[in-house]
């Protein structure tokens, strides 16, 4: 195994765990999560109904990222360059993180946005390993 291959495995497995857990939490505790998000976005330009819609879109993105990354690990697709299950999962992770980052900025949660930015950087580095 080469360091690049190990890096692809680690970043794919990392995002499989992160997004599978996050999506599962959103699906099993949706009302609690929605209450938190509606209070989090109370001073933003987003009305409560839009927050609900954004929540379900984010849940879909996170679910896709977790599933594709998980399948990428399960089927060893991280071993191949280019677009495959693992790199598709990392791409979905990047989209989910970008959505989270934009949301944090609109909510004026700059510390939260900084944390999301570090995850986004890991996703970009991970994707570059598939090039």
Walk me through the structure.
There is one protein chain. Helix content is 80%, strand content 0%. The model has no long low-confidence stretch (mean pLDDT 96). It has helices spanning 3-28, 30-40, 48-74, 85-106, 110-128. It has one domain. It is mainly alpha-helical and 131 residues long. The radius of gyration is 15 Å and the shape is elongated. The two termini are 17 Å apart.
C-alpha Rg (nearest Å): 15 Å
* Biggest sheet descriptor: none
Number of DSSP-assigned strands? 0
Cα separation of the termini: 17 Å
Beta-strand content: under 5%
What general form does the structure show? elongated
| Approximate helicity band | over 70%
Structural class label: mainly alpha
Task: Catalogue the unreliable spans.
Answer: none
The helix/strand series, from N terminus to C terminus, equals HHHHH
Number of domains: 1
Give the integer mean of the pLDDT values.
96
Overview in brief:
This protein has 131 residues and is an all-alpha fold. It has one domain. Helix content is 80%, strand content 0%.
């Amino acid at each position: 195994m080469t360091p690049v291959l190990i890096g692809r495995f680690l970043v794919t497995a990392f995002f499989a765990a992160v997004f599978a857990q996050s999506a599962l939490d959103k699906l099993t505790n949706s009302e609690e999560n929605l209450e938190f998000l509606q209070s989090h976005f109370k001073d933003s330009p987003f009305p409560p109904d839009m927050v609900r819609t954004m929540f379900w879109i984010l849940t879909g993105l996170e679910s896709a990222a977790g599933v594709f990354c998980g399948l990428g690990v399960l089927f060893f697709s991280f071993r191949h360059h280019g677009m495959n299950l693992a790199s598709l999962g990392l791409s979905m992770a990047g989209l989910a993180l970008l959505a989270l980052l934009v949301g944090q900025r609109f909510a004026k949660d700059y510390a939260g946005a900084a944390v999301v930015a570090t995850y986004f950087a890991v996703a970009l580095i991970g994707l570059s390993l598939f090039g």
